[in-house]
Write a structure and sequence with these properties.
globular, mainly alpha
């Protein structure tokens, strides 16, 4: 399946970088779909920082939002619609299932992110690129407070804020009790990369 193929490509990339010390060029047909999937998953496998709440936020902002993944088109109902980011979240969940004590965040965090991909409550998933986000924020600043339905539904959180304003403000709700930060982030301890099994026989339905 697609999830197994994505994880397999990420594992191969991570092995080239971590074990063989190679530089790797990742590029799909468009450059902002499979590229972001493979690159971000490989970094999760290699670097434990990206398995923390803050690190995962940085990774998504860097390799998805900042890189120019077309959230508006991919998550919308246009002919370009595709569950690319949902596939990435599915892959991350598969990793949390295979390595249940290696991630600071839990399944609830991933489900919350997946849900808000479609709500337009947060700026993270609204536009196709940083340019569109900045233009949107400029228009909203010029128009003043709108008191929109989106803001009232979102418990007073303005939609200019990213999804992480919700996740990081409720750490206890989205934290994995099996995760030991002192162990995983100890600078004196050798950081071993995760070696998942990207087989459909092992993967689960999320």
């Amino acid at each position: 399946g697609h999830i197994a193929s994505i994880l397999s490509a990420a594992l191969r990339t991570a092995c080239y970088v971590k074990q063989r010390r190679y530089s790797v060029l990742i590029h799909c047909s468009d450059g902002w779909d499979r590229t972001a999937q493979v690159s971000s998953l490989a970094q999760i496998l290699v670097d434990p920082y990206y398995r923390t709440l803050e690190g995962f936020a940085v990774l998504v902002e860097k390799d998805w939002v900042g890189f120019g993944h077309k959230f508006k088109d991919r998550l919308g109902e246009s002919h370009e619609g595709s569950p690319v980011f949902h596939q990435f979240l599915d892959c991350v969940w598969q990793l949390t299932e295979q390595f249940p004590d290696k991630f600071e965040f839990n399944e609830r965090a991933l489900k919350q992110i997946s849900t808000h991909c479609q709500t337009n409550w947060f700026s993270t998933f609204i536009c196709n690129c940083d340019k569109e986000r900045k233009e949107r924020m400029t228009r909203k600043a010029a128009s003043g407070p709108s008191g929109s339905l989106v803001e009232s539904k979102n418990a007073g959180i303005p939609p200019e804020l990213p999804i992480w304003s919700l996740i990081l403000a409720n750490r206890a709700m989205y934290s994995n009790p099996r995760y030991d930060q002192d162990r995983e982030m100890n600078p004196l301890k050798l950081k071993k990369m995760l070696l998942p099994i990207p087989s459909v026989k092992v993967l689960k339905i999320w």
